[in-house]
Amino acid sequence: MTGHAPPHKPPPKRRLAASARDRGENRAGILAAATAEFARHGLAGARVDRIAASAGTNKRMLYYYFGNKEALFTAVLEAAYADIRAAETRLSLLDVPPAEGIRRLIAFTWNYFIAHPQFLMLLNTENLYRGQHLRGRNEVRSLNSPLIATLSEILRRGRADGSFRAEPDALQLYISIAGLAYFYLSNNHTLSAIFARDLARPGARRERLAHMTELVVGYLRHGPE
User: Fold this and answer.
1) Which domains does the chain have, with CATH numbers?
2) pTM of the entire structure?
C-alpha cells in the first residue's frame, strides 16, 4: 500500500517568527497609510476605510492592532517622533566641535522638515487638539530626553572651551531652532503671498538656512548684550 507523505510544516519556532514578521509588516503598512491619511485630512476628516484600503487590509484588522481611530492617530504621532529622533542620533553631534554640532542640528532640522512635510501637518493637527494625544505619553518623553541631554552637553563643552558665551537652556534653544524652521515652512504660502516673494524656491531656502545658522551660532558665540 502506497501512502502519501504528510505536507511539510515548518517547525513551530519558524512559524512563530514568520507570524511575528507578518504582524509587524501589517502594522507598519497601516501606520504608513494612516500617516498619509491624517496628514492630508486631519484627525476629523480621516477615514478608517480609506486607511485600511490603502494598507491592503480591512477595518477589522486595523481595529485589532490599534483599537480605534484616535489610538491610531496617537500611534502615528509616536512613530513620527521616533523616526526624527532616530535620524538625529545618527548625526554624531558629540563627535565634532560644539559650533559644528549646532550647525549640524540646524541643517538637519531644516532639511528633515522639508523632506517630511507630513510631520509638520501632523503637528498642526495635534496642536488643534491642544496636544491631548501626546500628553502624558512616556514613550514620547523618553524619545526626546536624549536629544536635550546631548544638546546640554554640546552647550557645556562650548562654554568650557570658550567657543560659546551664551548660556541658554537646552530645551529653549532646541525650541528656537525648530521654531525658526517650522514657522517658515508651515506658513510658506501666506508669507510668499503677503511679501510677494517665492520663499519656496531653492535659493530662498538656502538663504533661510544660512540666516538661521548665523543667528543661532552667532548668539551662542557672543552671548546676550
Assistant:
1) 15-67 (1.10.10.60), 76-222 (1.10.357.10)
2) 0.87
